Amino acid sequence: MEKSNSQTAETEKNDLKPVFLAISSLSIICLAFSGYAQIQAHLKPCWLCLAQRYIYLALLVFCVFGFFSKLQKIIQKALFLILCIGILITVYHTLLYFGMIKIKCSIETRKGDKYTYIPYKTPK
User: Fold this and answer.
1) How far apart, in whole angstroms, are the C-alpha atoms of residue 107 and residue 61?
2) For the segment 69-85, what is each residue's pLDDT rounded down to a tens digit?
3) Neighbours of 47 (CB within 10 A)
4) Helix, strand, or coil here: 41?
5) In what side-by-side order are the strands of the sheet with 114-119?
6) What b/e readout covers 1-28, taking b as 16+ CB neighbours within 10 angstroms?
7) Which residues lie closer than 8 Å to 82 by C-beta, 6 or more apart?
8) CA 13 to CA 58: how far, in whole Å?
9) Are 34 and 49 in contact (CB under 8 A)?
């Protein structure tokens, strides 16, 4: 039995592969940039930076799985949850960085084989 035109159109309409491809591409770019910043700029990431990297990695894994799976709607919901958690972490990290929240958070830079503590400075 052949699929009707309406079923084919519905399948194409619900195909999330371009979305998975875009999110996974952005995740790869973010992970590559953070790796570059750590290795080439000698920046040691704080725990929030690492949490954001884990979010990007989770997005990448779910997108790759969703790209090849038929469970795209379930994976879409999981991606939405991961993105919401990632946005919350990013907003919190940004507020800390710009001094809108007063909690100790630091960035460390490597000089030789030692890391030097540089506290975040509040912009004036």
Assistant:
1) 28
2) 888 889 999 999 999 99
3) 9
4) coil
5) 43-44, 106-111, 114-119
6) eeeeeeeeeeeeeeebeeebeebbeebe
7) 55, 58, 59, 62
8) 25
9) yes
Q: Report residue 64 as tokens.
A: 């790759």
Backbone φ and ψ for 70, nearest 5 degrees, come out as -95, 0
CA 11/CA 112 separation, integer angstroms: 56
Q: Residue 70 has which token pair?
A: 């038929």
Handedness of CA 94, 124, 42, 106 (dihedral sign): negative
- Name residue, tokens 């930076």: 49
| CA 44 – CA 2 distance, rounded (Å) | 58
The pairing of beta strand 114-119 with beta strand 43-44: unpaired
β strands within the chain, DSSP E:
43-44, 106-111, 114-119
Summarised one tens digit per residue, pLDDT across range 4-57 is: 555 554 455 568 899 999 999 999 999 999 999 889 888 888 888 999 999 999
